[in-house]
Amino acid sequence: MFWEALVLGCVQGLTEFLPISSSAHLTLLPQLFHWRTPWLNSLSFDVALHLGTLLALLLYFWKEVAIMAGAWLRKGLTRQAWSDPNSKLAWWIILGTIPAVILGFPFEKKVELWFRAPLAVAISLMAAGLLMGTAEYVSRKQKALGELSLGQALAIGCAQALALIPGVSRSGITLTAGLFAGFKREDAARFSFLLAMPVTAGACVLKFKDLFKLTSSAELAATVAGILSSAVVGWLCIHFLLAYLRRSSLYIFVIYRLFLGLGVVIWCLV
After folding, report:
1. Which of 10, 37, 119, 143 is the Cys-Cys partner for 183 at CB 3.0 to 4.6 Å?
2. At CB < 8 A and 24+ separation, what contacts does 28-32 make?
3. CA distance 194 to 190
4. What digits encode the pLDDT tens for the residues 242-251?
């Protein structure tokens, strides 16, 4: 169970931030290798993996978060809030989180139940991949993060709500929405990561009590392995993706999603 947890943590850290869908990989991998350990398929372990990627986000962006939080506390409720870029960005993140909260929490379990079948995951992978490819092709990629408007923040926030569907990818769909709005790849990715923090933190807080359902030392060791591996791999992945997007396109991820989705379809039909 320990090594399986370590692998799943690495997969979570890698696929949560690359636009290839963590939920798809974490759904398909245990089925492919016939991993039936109840703890690794539990809500508690899922919370542990997301706690790890939240730690990766906080460690990577702690300076930006601290600056935004300080600006928001000083000016967030005054007229000066909109003239300070850090305070304004904090507001856009807060307001952009609202669609995911409204649409996400009431429908989370139903959506996961409806779309968790491998064939449904495959279709989501390919459909979202084609949408990402379209955004990469048509986007002007000229805007910087400081040019983000309220309407664009809300639109990207609505896109984030679609990440409930396994195979869509939170980073992928928000990055796609950012490109459609005309932002540079790196700036779209940066806002995508910052926007993910409140939702991920909220989910971890709401489900944190499930982490205390450990019944053995083996489960404790597996949980720690999952948290640490997802945090370390997640941090490295964020660093890699932001550097990669400064000079390269998203087409490699589009191709990966299409081939993976097609492979899953063939696997389901054989």
Report:
1. 143
2. 28/118, 28/121, 28/264, 31/118, 32/267
3. 6
4. 999 999 999 9
Contact 164, 107 (CB under 8 A): yes
CA-based torsion, 254, 255, 261, 265: positive or negative:
positive
Which of 229-242 are b and which e, b meaning 16 or more Cβ less than 10 Å from the residue's Cβ?
bbbbbbbebbeebb
Contacts 24+ apart (CB under 8 A), 42-46: 42/210, 42/213, 43/207, 43/210, 44/210, 44/211, 44/213, 44/214, 44/223, 45/5, 45/8, 45/222, 45/223, 45/226, 46/207
pLDDT in tens, 20-70: 999 888 888 887 777 777 766 776 788 889 999 999 999 999 999 999 999
Residue 176 tokens, joined: 């796609």
Helix or strand holding residue 38 (H, E): none
Quick check: helix, strand or coil at residue 183?
A: strand
Q: pTM above 0.90?
A: yes
